[in-house]
Amino acid sequence: MSGRKIAECQECGELREIIADEKCFACYQRARRRNKRIVDRHSGAIKREHKKLFRAYSNAMVALADLGVSHQDIMAIKGILDAYVEPIRPYLSQEGVDENSKNRG
Ligand SMILES: [Zn+2]
To answer: What DSSP state is assigned to residue 22?
Structure first.
Protein backbone atom coordinates (compact mmCIF):
# COMPACT_ATOMS: atom_id res chain seq x y z
CA MET A 1 0.00 0.00 0.00
CA SER A 2 1.49 3.27 -1.10
CA GLY A 3 -1.28 5.29 0.48
CA ARG A 4 -1.64 7.33 -2.65
CA LYS A 5 -4.90 7.34 -4.51
CA ILE A 6 -5.49 6.65 -8.17
CA ALA A 7 -7.90 9.23 -9.50
CA GLU A 8 -8.64 11.53 -12.37
CA CYS A 9 -6.04 14.29 -12.53
CA GLN A 10 -7.69 17.69 -12.36
CA GLU A 11 -5.16 19.07 -14.81
CA CYS A 12 -4.83 16.53 -17.62
CA GLY A 13 -7.91 14.40 -16.90
CA GLU A 14 -5.94 11.12 -17.00
CA LEU A 15 -6.52 8.37 -14.46
CA ARG A 16 -3.26 8.49 -12.56
CA GLU A 17 -1.64 8.35 -9.18
CA ILE A 18 -2.45 11.64 -7.49
CA ILE A 19 0.55 13.30 -5.87
CA ALA A 20 -0.90 16.53 -4.55
CA ASP A 21 -3.52 19.18 -5.27
CA GLU A 22 -5.63 16.61 -7.17
CA LYS A 23 -2.87 16.40 -9.78
CA CYS A 24 -0.74 13.62 -11.20
CA PHE A 25 3.03 13.73 -10.83
CA ALA A 26 3.68 15.36 -14.23
CA CYS A 27 1.02 18.03 -13.77
CA TYR A 28 2.01 18.72 -10.18
CA GLN A 29 5.64 19.18 -11.24
CA ARG A 30 4.59 21.48 -14.07
CA ALA A 31 2.45 23.56 -11.70
CA ARG A 32 5.32 23.78 -9.23
CA ARG A 33 7.69 25.01 -11.91
CA ARG A 34 5.09 27.57 -12.94
CA ASN A 35 4.71 28.83 -9.39
CA LYS A 36 8.46 29.00 -8.97
CA ARG A 37 8.69 31.39 -11.88
CA ILE A 38 6.02 33.63 -10.40
CA VAL A 39 7.68 33.70 -6.99
CA ASP A 40 11.15 34.43 -8.28
CA ARG A 41 12.84 36.02 -5.30
CA HIS A 42 15.60 37.54 -7.42
CA SER A 43 13.19 39.72 -9.34
CA GLY A 44 11.49 41.08 -6.24
CA ALA A 45 10.77 44.77 -5.98
CA ILE A 46 13.11 45.26 -3.05
CA LYS A 47 16.65 44.88 -4.33
CA ARG A 48 19.77 44.13 -2.37
CA GLU A 49 20.88 47.78 -2.35
CA HIS A 50 17.44 48.71 -1.05
CA LYS A 51 17.82 46.22 1.78
CA LYS A 52 21.11 47.87 2.68
CA LEU A 53 19.39 51.26 2.81
CA PHE A 54 16.52 49.92 4.92
CA ARG A 55 18.98 48.46 7.41
CA ALA A 56 21.16 51.57 7.55
CA TYR A 57 18.13 53.83 7.88
CA SER A 58 16.58 51.81 10.69
CA ASN A 59 19.97 51.54 12.41
CA ALA A 60 20.26 55.33 12.24
CA MET A 61 16.78 55.77 13.71
CA VAL A 62 17.50 53.27 16.48
CA ALA A 63 20.78 55.03 17.21
CA LEU A 64 19.00 58.39 17.48
CA ALA A 65 16.48 56.86 19.86
CA ASP A 66 19.25 55.29 21.95
CA LEU A 67 21.02 58.64 22.13
CA GLY A 68 17.86 60.27 23.40
CA VAL A 69 17.80 62.77 20.54
CA SER A 70 14.80 65.11 20.74
CA HIS A 71 11.88 64.73 18.36
CA GLN A 72 12.68 68.05 16.71
CA ASP A 73 16.30 67.07 16.08
CA ILE A 74 15.28 63.64 14.77
CA MET A 75 13.00 65.35 12.25
CA ALA A 76 15.87 67.62 11.18
CA ILE A 77 18.24 64.66 10.78
CA LYS A 78 15.53 62.70 9.00
CA GLY A 79 15.18 65.59 6.57
CA ILE A 80 18.89 65.30 5.77
CA LEU A 81 18.79 61.50 5.52
CA ASP A 82 15.79 61.59 3.19
CA ALA A 83 18.02 62.46 0.24
CA TYR A 84 20.19 59.42 0.92
CA VAL A 85 17.29 56.99 1.10
CA GLU A 86 15.55 58.29 -2.02
CA PRO A 87 15.47 54.80 -3.68
CA ILE A 88 13.42 53.31 -0.82
CA ARG A 89 11.29 56.39 -0.14
CA PRO A 90 8.13 54.80 -1.65
CA TYR A 91 8.44 52.05 0.98
CA LEU A 92 8.83 54.38 3.93
CA SER A 93 5.60 55.65 5.40
CA GLN A 94 6.13 59.36 5.12
CA GLU A 95 2.54 60.30 5.97
CA GLY A 96 2.70 58.59 9.34
CA VAL A 97 5.86 60.45 10.34
CA ASP A 98 4.60 63.81 9.09
CA GLU A 99 1.32 63.30 10.90
CA ASN A 100 3.25 62.60 14.08
CA SER A 101 5.36 65.73 13.86
CA LYS A 102 2.26 67.82 13.20
CA ASN A 103 0.58 66.45 16.32
CA ARG A 104 3.57 67.16 18.48
CA GLY A 105 3.79 70.72 17.12
ZN1 LIG B 1 -2.13 15.24 -14.87
So the answer is: T
